[in-house]
Write a structure and sequence with these properties.
Its EC number is 5.1.3.2. By secondary structure, the protein is an alpha/beta fold. Helix content is 40%, strand content 18%. It has a domain of 214 residues: 3-Layer(aba) Sandwich (Rossmann fold). Helix 9 packs across helix 11. The longest helix has 19 residues. The two termini are 37 Å apart. Bound molecules: UDP-4-deoxy-4-formamido-beta-L-arabinopyranose (WQD).
Length: 338
């Protein structure tokens, strides 16, 4: 029995491969290396001592996807991470996002619907909620018009999966991530942003290491206690463990519906200034930043209700913001001192 992890050499994918191997699953990774490196396989092996099967393959090639499933006939579950995920880039290059994030999903589902029984876990995002009306955000919150093509591909992806599951043997779990941060405590794998990081935490750690001059804080005039945006920053290892629990739920046929949805967050909202304060604490040095204008498309606040994940999925986060920031900082110092 094998588990396919698409995008398995990426940030969340690689951490999930580690957690799958830790509990005995045999993992097959598909990755096209467009936003990752094959070196990540060595990091995974360094942690678990087990080498996952790695197939370099672009899921946009329908024939390659068909050939993969002809070769691997014992895939018991699929965890689908492979997608483009930069909000800003999706605005300037929407077709790249619609092709990469939607056609790959369709080709995967076309293969899975040939099976009598297939288990599919989809990497979704809290971005589908836009600016939710009520905090914390639960899974029944309204799905608002997407604020970016990236967010739209997640909404469309969820709808496609729901429609296909109704008429096939596919059972699916949609996992809506809040803000994944940090790195594996071993320092063997972590986030490897290409170019200038768009996300807050890798920009902070690169500033801390001296790669960036200072952090631009995008606005301190929001209606929040300190004026900066609030998010739910979840340790990537906690997030990875949620995928193992979700997979086991499907394999054990414990899912209550053909498609289930779970928000994955800590339930705690942290402002940008609070994240900076956490970084100063773990790095033990002052941090250079300046307040600039708001960033287009940012929501004021988003943090998760953890009730359904805790009570139905049977999972909860274990790491604090400081522990996540500490792991991110240790990773940054390690990769810059290689
Ligand atoms: C967090 C906060 C910024 C950078 C996005 C996607 C989401 C997921 C995570 C893929 C905001 C502020 C940031 C900086 C700043 N992506 N910030 N200066 O926008 O909440 O979520 O990334 O899965 O789907 O929507 O994350 O880290 O970009 O921003 O002040 O240089 O940090 O304004 O308030 P975001 P982020």
């Amino acid at each position: 029995m094998k588990i396919l992890v698409t995008g398995g050499l990426g940030f969340i994918g690689s951490h999930t491969v580690v957690e799958l191997q830790n509990v005995g699953y045999e993992v097959v990774i598909i990755d096209n290396l467009s936003n990752s490196s094959e070196d990540v396989v060595n990091g995974i092996v360094a942690i678990t001592g087990k080498k996952p099967i790695f197939e370099k393959l672009d899921l946009r090639e329908k024939a390659a996807v068909e050939n993969f499933f002809e070769k691997y006939t014992d895939i018991a579950g699929v965890i689908h991470f492979a997608a483009s995920k930069a909000v800003g880039e999706s605005v300037t290059n929407p077709l790249l996002y619609y092709e990469n994030n939607i056609s790959t999903l369709i080709y995967l589902l076309q293969e899975l619907q040939k099976k009598d029984d297939a288990n599919f876990i989809f990497s979704s995002s809290c971005t589908v909620y836009g600016q939710a009306d009520v905090m914390p955000i639960d899974e029944n919150a309204a799905i608002k018009p997407a604020m970016s093509p990236y967010g739209n591909t997640k909404q469309i992806g969820e709808e496609i999966i729901t429609d296909v599951a109704k008429v096939s043997g596919i059972n699916a779990i949609l996992l809506r991530y809040f803000n994944p941060i940090g790195a594996h405590p071993s320092g063997e794998i972590g986030e490897l942003p290409i170019g200038v990081p768009q996300n807050l935490v890798p920009f902070i750690t690169q500033t801390g290491i001296g790669l960036r001059k200072e952090l631009m804080v995008y606005g301190d005039d929001y209606p929040t206690p300190d004026g900066t945006c609030i998010r739910d920053y979840i340790h990537v290892v906690d997030l990875a463990k949620a995928h193992v629990v979700a997979l086991q739920r499907l394999l054990d046929k414990k899912n209550a519906e053909k498609v289930e949805t779970f928000n994955l967050g800590t339930g705690v909202g942290s402002s940008v200034l609070e994240v900076i304060k956490s970084f100063e604490k773990v790095s033990d040095k002052p941090f250079p930043f300046k307040i600039v204008a708001r960033r287009e498309g940012d929501v004021t606040q988003a943090y998760a209700s953890t009730d359904k994940a805790n009570n139905v999925l049977g999972w909860k986060t274990e790491s604090s913001l400081d522990e996540a920031m500490d792991s991110a900082w240790k990773w940054e110092t390690k990769i810059r001192n290689k």
